[in-house]
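Could you join me in thinking about how sequence relates to backbone shape in a protein? To get us started, please write out a protein record for me. Would you write everything just below, so we can both look at the same thing?
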Amino acid sequence: MSKFLVGFFIIFSSQLFLNAQCDYSRNQYSFKVEKGIFYGVVPDYRGIMDSLFLDVYSPVGSPELTKPLIIWAFGGGFFQGKREDFASICEEMAKRGIISATIDYRLGFDGPGLGLNPPFAFDAAEVLRAGYRGVTDMKGAIRFLKGKSSDYEIDLDRIWLGGASAGAMVALNAAFLNKDSEKPKETGAISPANAKQRPDLGPVEGTLNLNGHNTEVQGVFNIFGALLDTLAVDATDRIAVISYHQTNDPIVPCVANTPYYPIPLISQNYPVVYGSCVITERFKYLGIPETHWETWIYPGTEHAVHNQNAVLDFMIENAKPFLCKNITAQNNETQSSLYLLPNPAGETIQIPDLKNSAEYKIMNMSGHIMAKGLIKRNAAIDVTELPSGLYILELRQKNTTTLLKWIKS
């Protein structure tokens, strides 16, 4: 074999290996889990010391020497929920090749009395303080896991935060609340609630696991969460945010509003929060590159995801440019100006810039052909019958092949 062919084979094989390393779109590994790892103890809203634990799910068989990590926080309105709520998602991510941790954070806040307990709140400050405790706990978990990076084979440059509802609020604010000047005044020493003292809750970085590591992260998976204040995002921030939210979510609003806004008896004592719709507008206003954010606003009225698998596929696919930082060579997809709309899609897909007819195949992520045919200019492909998930559309025109990834909602 000539030296040229040997060299070409080595480069081609290396590229195949790198692409194999960075395929997080499907289950391909077994996993192991280590549960009940103690990462700190801090006082809760009553002043009682609360021990915090986390669980780590790791892929088994992945060729990557160091792997991305997602740290997940559960939802529950800051007064209920448990880290095990994210066990199934952590398992799913580990099977795809991504380390996942699901954490405890401090829960609870004072209700207004007279037998009214959370979600009823004494005042807006109680809710803000509950969220802030969660934020500083997550920052402590970030430092703890960074300190254990060699034990768990974590890539320190590819650490993400994630969560749903209150957990997504914890994740978003842990990522962006990074200056003491951004600390909410309500988290300092303030007047008592129900005769219970409310001391200063400390710096925005918290006090857990001050081991020399910072709390910087590459990105956030935001599932119907919110920021305490959009001013925490400035033009210099380069934290990727992949979001999902329903338009009329009644618990955590997609716009700027109080949680539980349809229920005045509860919402009157809550602060205004800034949901995914407003966060996206903030990114646009600041001119943050579109490569750093993607938002799926689903037309619905639920505080839920309409399809968990489709939402997870959407998030991982849009995070791929960051998670696959080591992939620098051209892949096998032909460079093309063609794109697909809508994405995610429900009933039909179209190729707006298609100039001539093309043969098409729709393949799932295992390579199975789910549909094929001929698409003409300005025509649409009916995808109603396809199950929800991540797909590849292959277009063939003369000697040109274009591959487009898309999500069926």
DSSP finds eight helices and 19 strands in the chain. The first strand starts at residue 30 and ends at 43. The two ends are 49 Å apart (CA to CA). The first helix runs from residue 3 to 21.
